[in-house]
Amino acid sequence: MDPNDTVWKKSEKYYKDIATKLKSRTLNNPVMNDITEARAELDCSFNSDVYTALVRERCAKDFNCYFDEFLYFYTLYNKTTENVDDSLTFYSTHGNKTSGRNITQSLKATSKMVELLYKNSNSSKDFNDTTTTYTLLNDRLFVMELLNENDTFAHVGLERIHNLTKQIKQIVLQTFKETPWMSVINEFGFTILGQYMTILDELIVLTDFDSIDRNLTTLRKINHDITAKYFEYSPRTTGCAWFDVVHSFNRTSIELEKKYTSFEEQVNFLRAAYSLVYNAFNYVEASIIVVLAPTFYPLIDNSTDTTMIAFAGDILGHEIYHSFITEALLNRSEEYRNEAECLSTHFNQSCTLFAEGRCHSGPKTLSEDGPDVEGIRAAYKLLTSEFTREQLSELEYPDLEITREQSFFYSVAMRSCRDISKAEYREHSPDNIRVNALVSQIPEFSRAFSCETDDLLYSEPDGVCFLFGKDATGKKKTTTARVGNDARNGTIVDLSDEIARLLVES
Fold first, then answer.
1. What b-and-e string marks burial along 195-221, b requiring 16 or more CB atoms within 10 Å of the CB?
2. pLDDT digit string (tens) for 392-420?
3. What's the pTM value of the predicted model, to 2 decimals?
4. What 3-state class would DSSP assign to 106?
5. What is the pLDDT of residues 323-333, one digit of tens each?
6. At 397, is the secondary structure helix, strand, or coil?
């Protein structure tokens, strides 16, 4: 299947198409003009003689100008470099003293830092990474202006998402209450259950199309702040436009981090940076989850209750569990630690069964694999509370002979349909592992698709891992990923060493 035909890709395309129609409005935007011109010169490389001449032309005999240039690049160099030389740090605080006001020395130090920044740069990647936030912020601003004008917000069905949120939170709460080890009282009289109930109660879920997108004041302020800071730094030039743009945005980002000190400001900036993609994120420090627009609109107008539970409900469950599946919990509960090792073993063995190329699933991806598994369980519980067993067996798509229950699992898996050869995976398992290891932890999947006991995705209730719930007992079990003659070439890591490392680091 072509990933572009998936529902989530089409949902993103809805917004990209609107943004494309509005591109002509960026022609009068000088920052966008800088970005466009710099993109055409990504092959430019640093020349110290050219840079020195440019700075001397701009600063002439003004030492303060040279020292300001030094401080500008020192801030960037210090932010991106480990073990910065002490002489640079000392000069940053003493170089403007009377005895140290040496233009040649200042320019030599600055030129060397710039040279090193160039050496550590990847022109294409760094340029795209640093300019994307501003580009997408402008796309978002233009899209929301148009949707406001067309009165789109009046019928996006946010109430449906808010109700899903309440239902998923209630299911997670009930799951915690059923978890045996969470009610154990420690020596200070506290329980993990009490702590987690408080965190869950305080957790706020925000969605796009709320007041921020409706009145646009916040988005316009962020856009103004970025633009103003960018122009404060952009007059500097090193002789390569792409490098100048990259570091004008980098320095802007550093300053805005200082400016946006409240959780509300930081979350709003993150929302602008994530822009219009099919995703959600959990800002754990602020107890705030943000669900971005493509996750629910226009899907909400064209989806059955089953697919909405699978798409939005599963994502909500995943993000909620990010607040609770932590490395610190490995130290607090032996039962949880055993179940976490069980789950890590399962995902690691799935690398051998399903990997296409190198696969790193296991303890290193537990922080995402755990929410994947517990998130789909929460969404499935919601599905079974909304439909009877008979209704789940009904054909939701008669032409395809797909039942309502099967449709749920297809919808969950569809979110991970992408070209894995072009994707980068760090904290997540590769998408093919993410799907196969996930559904082989859900016995209900085996029932829905009539899996046989020798099928690779088959699972039974007593053979799967539960981080939470009444079955999260921590008792040793055999994971259901079977490594045998059908196994593909993959990489298995030493799980005992990795779990021990996590315990030490947490």
1. ebeeebeebebbbbbeebbeebebbee
2. 999 999 999 999 999 999 999 888 877 76
3. 0.84
4. helix
5. 999 999 999 99
6. strand
